[in-house]
Design brief:
Helix content: 10-25%
CATH architecture of the largest domain: Sandwich
Low-confidence stretches: 1-31, 33-44
Strand content: 35-45%
């Protein structure tokens, strides 16, 4: 190997070390990666497991606390919710000052049979519905943990795999957190 080849290898090794250490000298946490496009033009997404201790999407670093199925959102049900549907809450831990901005990302819940936009978001301060809803009187067993935020989705009762798809391309597999 000549001197130019050795210099290129050393430079490449330096870039790899910087990328692996998060460019700040410390190992970085798991990052939900945008979908990658192969040479053939097909998409092969990198999907991050939802049970990781720390996930980063854009400017937000968070942890998915739990995924809970229920029959209503504090006694409310979206108008488009059918008898074969359920409410799926995805609860996140991130700083309270970021709750509203995070909710505005509106990640889509993707199941075996389709996808759903958030119907509402909740935190300790209250509920913000994002779709038309009706009072059902159905008791909701879900309560959001102190300091957390939850996004509520309508999903089929028989849905198997659950995944969050962010508009920027990041994907998070929620299946490991299903009860």
């Amino acid at each position: 190997m000549n001197r130019t080849g050795v210099s290129l290898c050393a430079a490449l090794l330096g870039v790899v070390v910087l990328l692996a250490s998060g460019c700040g000298g410390k190992p970085s946490g798991p990052v939900a990666a945008p979908a990658q496009t192969s040479q053939a033009g097909t998409t092969s997404p990198d999907v991050v497991p939802g049970n990781q201790a720390s996930i980063t999407v854009g400017e937000f670093t968070f942890r998915v606390l739990r995924v809970v199925a229920d029959t209503s959102i504090a006694g409310l049900a979206p108008l488009d919710m059918g008898s074969d549907d359920r409410i799926v809450f995805v609860e996140f831990q991130l700083p309270e000052g970021q709750h509203e901005a995070f909710a505005k990302l509106s990640p889509t819940l993707t199941t075996d049979s389709g996808s759903s936009d958030p119907a509402a978001w909740l935190n300790a301060s209250g509920i913000k519905t994002l779709t038309d809803a009706k009072m059902t009187g159905a008791e909701s067993k879900f309560t959001v943990a102190k300091g957390a935020i939850a996004l509520a989705y309508v999903a089929p009762k028989a849905s198997g795999q659950l995944r969050l798809d962010f508009p920027s391309g990041e994907k998070i597999d929620l299946t490991p957190l299903m009860p």
